[in-house]
Amino acid sequence: MLKLVLIPIISVGVYYAYDQDVFKPERNQEFVARVSLKTNCEMDINSFGLKNLSTGKTVNFKHGEAFIRASGKDELQVVMAPQFNAVRINGVKFVAGSNVEAFQDCNNNQVTLENIFDSMNTQFGSN
User: For 122, phi and psi rounded to 5 degrees?
Assistant: First the structure.
């Protein structure tokens, strides 16, 4: 009878510990992620930003690099820099690491100057 009670309690405890990353404490540690961006886009590389999807914080790329506070379980995404908040792209997403190289492909018909200007015309144009 005692086994029937202990087994579910232990199972729930192990699941909770696994879910909270108790077995991988390094994933909870915060660090500054250095992300290098390469792109084949027609626009200046400083037009891009980096967003931590867990915290919502966005920083600019400067000379192809961005530094952002993250933990090992955070997901980062390449976005347009905050000063271009009217223009949106679906940038590449990746798991945060201390030193990451990202590539934003603009030849996939999502991010082109024409699409950006169409987006701006839709946002600011008069009908």
Answer: -65, -40
